[in-house]
Amino acid sequence: MELRVGNLIELEVERETPLGFSLTNGEESILLHSNEVNGEVTVGETVKVFLYTDQKGRLSATMHMPKGYQSHDWVEVIEVVRNLGVFIDIGLSKDALIPAEDLPVFESLWPKEGSLLFCRIKTDRRGMLLGKLATHDVMLDKSVAAPKEILNKNIQGTIYRLLKVGSYIFTNEGYVGFIHHSERKEEPRLGDIVEGRIIDVKRDGTINVSLLPRKQEALDEDSQVILDYMETRNGTMPYSDKSAPEDITERFHMSKAAFKRALGRLMKEGKVYQKEGWTYRKTE
After folding, report:
1. C-alpha span between 114 and 80 (Å, rounded)
2. Is the pTM of this model over 0.90?
């Protein structure tokens, strides 16, 4: 077989060298560096190796199989390069690239360093190692059906697909879920780990997930947002339950209805009071 990047091939160990071992297919030779040896190697035997280009662009062999070569695997993003793509750790001294054209259009939604992506490893015509993100069908094949009794339970998982209408998540349990854009405050990045709750279990075993807090949790959060803002203004603010909805949304990033609920709670608890369109923090 031809010595070409991306090939998994059996080669004969022809001799030991200062750097490792020289391997041959009978016509060409290639270096198996000592760092790439897995187990015992003796001259004259045949070893199975993966071929790749090292950091200096030389064709090299390794006995370590790269993650994602024979089947999809979770790989870690180790570098993000603007306009180029993201590099992923596949267990070799050389990293693979997921090119920009295979990532979200907006770089603000690209995965961050440390994010995990589910990929296969392939090579292009130039012999470059590339990561190919798993398709939705692949994730469905890998998934397990969610039972009905987990409805309303908390869930954690990794974002693996972004659409205009929402995001797809693969949970720690192996469920495939969908997060509609109305069920989140902001769009997660590809590869983000998010936590939410299950709001529907569908007939096919997939789930719908919300990243929004439950009503009581939202009320607690909104009340704290108001108090935190008032703290920055010495306990006062020029907003009340009579303020314009657009002013509330711009300042607090919540609806007028949510603001009124949170403010009403704070007044009922005796923490704030209103006067002439302003709200004041009560002092002890």
Report:
1. 10
2. no
Query: Letter for the amino acid at 137?
Result: D
Sign of the CA dihedral running 52, 56, 58, 64:
negative
Three-state DSSP class for residue 183: helix
CA distance 92 to 148: 42
Does pLDDT of 254 surpass 90? no
* Region 48-63 average pLDDT: 85
CATH no. for 8-62: 2.40.50.140
Identify any residues that bridge with 194 across adjacent strands, giving them in sequence order: 157
CATH for 73-134?
2.40.50.140
Residue 265 contacts residue 219 (beta carbons within 8 Å): yes
- Computed over every residue of the chain, the mean pLDDT equals 90
Provide the CA 80 distance to its chain's centre, in angstroms.
13
Amino acid at residue number 174? G
